[in-house]
């Protein structure tokens, strides 16, 4: 029996992370418009879901996620996308693996009174990834490419520009959160724009496949 309810939404930020889901066996049902952007409704096997490009950055991620939650009774928020690595990471070893962050930090939050990443009256980090495994991920509105940008966050393994916002929004709305990342660059090293964008496209397949299979198990 087909599940006609939309219980899950898959979010990605960068247009380079977009996939032709029909090549993965999904069927496009229709498009809707939110914030002047087309949002696709797909079916994968018997599961209907939303596929959403938010645009890059924490604010875009938070706005789109909250709008979708208000418009659709989703239970599961899935985010896949690229990430960069701190110097503590063995890049060649991790480059071909998927990353499932356990803790999410806000790299832009710094005060004289609280630990790095903590805002007043907010948790120091979010730990709500249902598939999280040991790694810490920090999100910023800035692209992290120099170690001096994260000198207070040596305990963070990976960096992106949206996952914290998804983790926070999912937590505040009591949704199931699933986050899967893949590695494309490392601070102080391979930050050439063309190389990074090519790495984003190359690593896409595994993350998309994992996200679609996840729909069957949540």
TrEMBL record:
Residues 9-85 form the Nucleoside phosphorylase domain. It holds the Pfam family PNP_UDP_1. This is 5'-methylthioadenosine nucleosidase. It comes from Mesomycoplasma hyopneumoniae.
